[in-house]
TrEMBL record:
N6-(pyridoxal phosphate)lysine sites (modified residues): K322
Lineage: Bacteria, Pseudomonadati, Pseudomonadota, Alphaproteobacteria, Acetobacterales
Chain spans, region Disordered: 327-349
UniProt name for this protein: Lysine 2,3-aminomutase
Pfam family, one: LAM_C
Family as reported in the entry's similarity comment: Belongs to the radical SAM superfamily. KamA family.
Residues annotated as domain Radical SAM core: 96-312
Length: 349
């Protein structure tokens, strides 16, 4: 496959419309009408940092962000709210699924819009920012629920907030005695690393334990600007976790996963979760069966350090929570398999 020839006259800006995609050589002119139909349902955004990584319109970076007419094909298994966020939202901006933690979604804007996103029917450039009153209601809910020890800032992407707004939220959370941990889930360090300024990092200073989970699906996303950005974050004493989704055509091979997880560890990021794809509308082309995912992870056991081996998880549709999918190595009451598949009988398990 030949490399993408990006027109020299194309400005370095966010690509949003079918016209933008065609001008950038990411879609043929014949697809304009079909892509316009997709745009009526789902947002598109490809920032310059991600565009720089695309070699051709079908490579592992491109297919994560370039819309296709297939997104309008919905299978019976797919749901508009696949993990039950809406049913578990006591007030706007809060999702409470587990007893000791809650999500805070201050906005529904992202630096890019993944074509497999489980919140794809909610996020977008007009997806909403909690206004002052709504944000205060969400914060008050957290204040009045002392069982909440961890608050996870997500959305959308919390690093798309201004430093002032993010600082207000961090200060409010830091002032809650029962909150011990603040976690931020983001794609910004790989999608728009220029947004991570010293001023933004200053807002993450807290007496609480602050963690950052970065969503990365392919080793090439760890570009030099991304690695420099992650280094800045680590220097602030913020531990990094890596989150990925198992995706057909992106990382559905042992080699691709190994490169991804090794790249994370080299960037001082602990691979945390490998997610089974959530059944959001129009995402069937990305689906990898669970059995195949288990085989891929088993193929890496013993091949990579345990630091580079995430937990393979399924978020049970309907809001029932995450469960690990294995692979497992216990074959019976006293039988285990080693990484090479050989069985061993043990007297005591």
């Amino acid at each position: 496959m030949s490399h993408l020839v990006k027109p020299q006259s194309l400005p370095r800006r966010l690509l949003r419309t079918p016209q933008d995609l065609i001008a950038a050589g990411l879609a043929p002119p014949s697809q304009h009408a079909a892509l316009q139909a997709v745009a009526q349902h789902y947002a598109t955004a490809i920032p310059p940092a991600f565009l720089d990584l695309i070699e051709h319109p079908n490579d592992p970076i491109a297919i994560q962000v370039i819309p296709t007419p297939a997104e309008l094909e919905v299978t019976p298994e797919e749901r508009s709210d696949p993990i039950g966020d809406d049913a578990l939202s006591p007030v706007p901006g809060i999702v409470h699924r587990y007893a000791d933690r809650a999500l805070l979604k201050p906005l529904l804007v992202c630096p890019l819009y993944c074509r497999f996103c489980f919140r794809r029917e909610h996020v977008g450039p007009d997806g909403g920012l909690l206004d002052d009153a709504a944000l205060e209601r969400a914060l008050e809910w957290l204040r009045t629920h002392p069982q909440i020890q961890e608050v996870i800032l997500t959305g959308g992407d919390p690093l798309m907030l201004s430093a002032r707004r993010l600082g207000q939220i961090m200060d409010a959370l830091s002032a809650m005695p029962h909150v011990t941990t603040i976690r931020l889930h983001t794609r910004v360090p790989v999608a728009a690393p220029e947004r991570v300024t010293e001023a933004l990092l200053d807002t993450l200073e807290s007496d609480k334990a602050v963690w950052m989970a970065v969503h990365i699906n392919h080793a090439r996303e760890l570009s030099e600007p991304a690695k420099a950005c992650l280094k800045q974050i680590v220097r602030r004493g913020i531990p990094l976790l890596g989150q990925s989704v198992l995706l057909r055509g992106v990382n559905d091979s042992e080699d691709a996963l190994e490169a991804l997880f090794r790249g994370m560890v080299a960037a001082r990021m602990r691979p945390y979760y490998l997610h089974q794809l959530d059944p959001a509308p129009g995402t069937a082309r990305f689906h990898v069966p669970v059995e195949e995912g288990q085989r891929l992870l088993a193929g890496l056991r013993g091949r990579v350090t345990g630091l580079a081996w995430p937990t393979y998880v399924l978020d049970i549709p309907g809001g029932y929570g995450k469960v690990p999918l294995g692979p497992g190595y216990v074959d019976g009451p006293r039988t285990v398999r080693d990484p090479e598949g050989k069985t061993h009988n043990l007297d005591r398990l």
